[in-house]
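Worked Example 4.2. Consider the chain below.
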Amino acid sequence: MKIDDLDLGNQPLLLAPMEDITDPSFRYLCKKFGADVMYTEFISSDGLIRDGGKSVKKLDIFEYERPMGIQLYGHIVESMVEATFKVLESKPEIIDINYGCPVRKIATRGAGAGMLANIPLMMEMTRAIVEASTVPVTVKTRLGWDENSKNIVEVAEQLQDQGIKALTIHGRTRAQMYKGTADWTLIGEVKRNPRMHIPIIGNGDITSAVEAKQAYDRYGVDGIMIGRAAVGKPWLFGHIKHYLEHGELLPDPSVSDKVEMAKLQFSKSVEIKSEPVGVYEMRRHFSNYFKGLPHFKEMRYKLLTTLDVDEVFSLLQQIDEKYGDYRPDVVGSFWDK
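Applying the procedure from the previous section yields the following structure tokens:
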């Protein structure tokens, strides 16, 4: 798959931009396990042009992360263009426009998935950003605003006409938020449309290597973007790649393996963000790394309340000692694969 001149190889896997999730520490693990393209957390154009500290900080890219994309959202064309110029200073390989975020405070302002209710403005904004950018511009969007307006086939054609170089489609409407099941049939219809010549990337409910292969086989997409399923499971990228290449399912990592991953991500979080922010912002990841462990409530509470770095490492070690081999199908060490 190629996004303009950026060659991503066959059947690439992309890490979706997620607010408060895809920070550098999490991206470090996803890259380690095989993510081909990653994105920063999505960035408000208004926050960026006003030099908001949080928004500006999201522009940081490490060389080992490349190729990287930076995703912008906003509802005012001029602000999005001005933000595009600021983004270009970080030299990303891709600028992605967020027309997919369904969160109420964003969509009701007309940004994110809110643009699906104003297609003419969506096209005006897309064209303006394409003209302003010196790197490929891509778009991430949804099937439509609601069940009665699943117009992604027509919207995809129009977006391509504005000059975007790839399109990611999440298989839900804005009204669905993240409920129900992602519908990939329309994603496949966009891909099969003879008018489309840019890469089509599918997104939604890919939680395993088998599901990823089925998506490629059934719908013919050029790439797959993975979001929530990778939180606490950065190894998912490696699982999928191995299965696509060899047809073999790797065993799930043991708790000991997950502890090693959590320690590495936690160390990066503290290194990059310092204390206590680096500790605090790892909490949602810890919850996902160790989700489903039996009799874990007390230890989980301690892990999600302490701000002491040494105590966190001590708790992770205790988890390893108590649950280290908690996996029914232990076959060697996943970490070494």
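The first helix runs from residue 24 to 32. The chain has 15 helices and eleven strands. Compare this with Example 4.1 before moving on.
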